[in-house]
């Protein structure tokens, strides 16, 4: 099930760790402040997102 | 000092590595031993200036000799046998990517970028940042081992040949660090042994696709991953402050020797055409996600050379550079 996520206001998502498992387009959209629907959220992305308790752990995208 | 009758076997020297929990801080607890063919001397690349200076006579003077290791790049090269304990860690170290799932493979994403590596960062619990590498010296005084902190794996080669050890997979690579080594250390204790479970070319029982050509008859194969790394800045101890990886790229290249036959005889034409579909799929299952044991999948690549190899039959030596598409992975490795 897709999960709608948004970046925290006080940070930017670095491009390190393979764009935190995001596609380039999703990475750009999140840093633009837009909400994005993701199937999986990598644990390296979680610290940058609002509503962490709603995110699920990703194994494949763990990069 | 009296003469010492002790003699040491080259096989008593050991090479071990361990992920660091604080980047750039020695971690010698339960180090993983590598199944190496031989322990070679590390390359220290010391700054050493012994030029003659202006003075009396035409001789280099004691006072002018200068040797320092700060800011120099130390490299520890190794070659040995791949095993199921250490190869997965080495693959994570060179790809800076944790294991995936479905399949459990070590991948380089199409948009791969490395993790940030800042010396002193703590609470690290993965295999993708820095490592401590130790050369364990067997001498009885137990104070001659060498330990190198802040190491990263800059190259890894996985190779096998049906003419050597029945296709058993060998591994070679290079650790590099810009931090100062420590010499005269005690041997690491409580080391983790390498596994007796190895890998082999003969595990590729379902798919043998080389350069996009299915059902190749393979005699030799090598996969080379290069992750160039540089050590930047200096801190109060004279060690670097950061490590940059994958500049300008993390590169994947493959060399294979395949039998010349109706399937493969278009290789020269394919080289000339420069197509980017020179893929690899080498597995024990026709569906990659169901493959196990040892497998490789690279969806896109370009031939960089094709040569005849006159063996007991005509073979082709082919070289392929892996390319990333706009999604997915540059390469996936099951190990």
Describe the structure.
The complex is a heterodimer of chains A (63) and B (335). Chain A has helices at residues 16-20, 24-31; strands at 3-5, 36-38. Chain A has 63 residues and is α+β, with helices and mostly antiparallel strands. Chain A has one domain (3-54). The termini of chain A are far apart. Chain B has one domain (10-46, 69-188, 196-334). Chain B has helices spanning 87-95, 267-273, and strands at 14-19, 32-33, 47-49, 66-68, 74-81, 105-109, 117-118, 131-136, 145-161, 170-177, 182-185, 207-209, 218-226, 229-232, 242-245, 251-259, 280-283, 295-298, 301-310, 314-322, 329-334. In chain B, the strands form 4 sheets. In chain B, strands 1, 2, 5, 8, 9, 10, 11, 13, 16, 19 and 20 form an 11-stranded antiparallel β-sheet that branches. A 5-stranded antiparallel β-sheet of chain B has the order 6-21-18-17-12, with helices on one face. Chain B is globular. The N and C termini of chain B lie far apart (51 Å). The mean pLDDT of chain B is 97. Classes of the chains: A alpha+beta (63), B mainly beta (335). Chains A and B meet through helix 1 of A and loops of B.
Brief description of this entry?
The complex is a heterodimer of chains A (63) and B (335). By secondary structure, chain A is α+β, with helices and mostly antiparallel strands.
């Amino acid at each position: 099930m897709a999960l709608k996520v948004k970046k925290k206001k006080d940070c930017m998502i670095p491009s390190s760790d393979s764009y935190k498992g995001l596609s380039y387009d999703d990475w750009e959209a999140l840093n633009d402040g837009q909400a994005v629907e993701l199937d999986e959220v990598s644990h390296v992305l979680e610290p940058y997102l609002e509503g962490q308790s709603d995110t699920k752990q990703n194994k494949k995208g763990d990069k | 000092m009296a003469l010492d009758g002790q003699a040491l076997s080259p096989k008593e020297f050991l090479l071990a590595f361990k992920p660091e929990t604080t980047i750039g801080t020695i971690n010698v607890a339960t180090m993983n031993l590598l199944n190496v063919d031989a322990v070679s001397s590390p390359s220290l690349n010391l700054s050493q200036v012994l030029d003659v200076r202006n003075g009396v006579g035409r001789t280099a003077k004691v006072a002018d000799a200068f040797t320092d290791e700060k800011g120099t790049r130390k490299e520890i090269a190794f070659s040995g046998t791949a095993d199921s304990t250490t190869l997965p860690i080495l693959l994570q170290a060179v790809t800076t990517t944790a294991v995936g799932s479905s399949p459990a493979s070590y991948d380089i994403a199409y948009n791969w970028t490395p993790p940030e590596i800042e010396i002193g960062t703590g609470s690290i619990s993965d295999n993708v940042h820095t490592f401590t590498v130790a050369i364990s010296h067997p001498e009885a005084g137990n104070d001659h081992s060498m330990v190198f902190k802040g190491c990263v794996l800059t190259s890894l080669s996985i190779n096998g040949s049906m003419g050597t050890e029945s296709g058993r997979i060998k591994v070679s690579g290079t650790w590099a660090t810009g931090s100062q080594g420590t010499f005269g250390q005690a041997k690491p204790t409580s080391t983790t042994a390498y596994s007796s479970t190895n890998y082999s070319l003969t595990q590729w029982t379902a798919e043998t696709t080389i350069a996009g050509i299915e059902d190749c008859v393979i005699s030799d194969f090598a996969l080379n991953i290069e992750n160039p790394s540089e050590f930047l800045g200096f801190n109060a101890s004279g060690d670097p402050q950061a490590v940059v990886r994958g500049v300008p790229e993390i590169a994947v290249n493959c060399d294979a020797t395949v039998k010349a036959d109706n399937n493969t005889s278009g290789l020269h034409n394919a080289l000339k055409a420069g197509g980017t579909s020179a893929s690899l799929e080498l597995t024990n299952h026709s569906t990659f996600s169901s493959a196990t044991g040892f497998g490789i999948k690279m969806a896109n690549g370009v031939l960089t050379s094709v040569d005849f190899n006159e063996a007991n039959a005509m073979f082709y030596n082919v070289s392929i550079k892996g390319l990333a598409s706009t999604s997915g992975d540059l390469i996936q490795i099951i190990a």
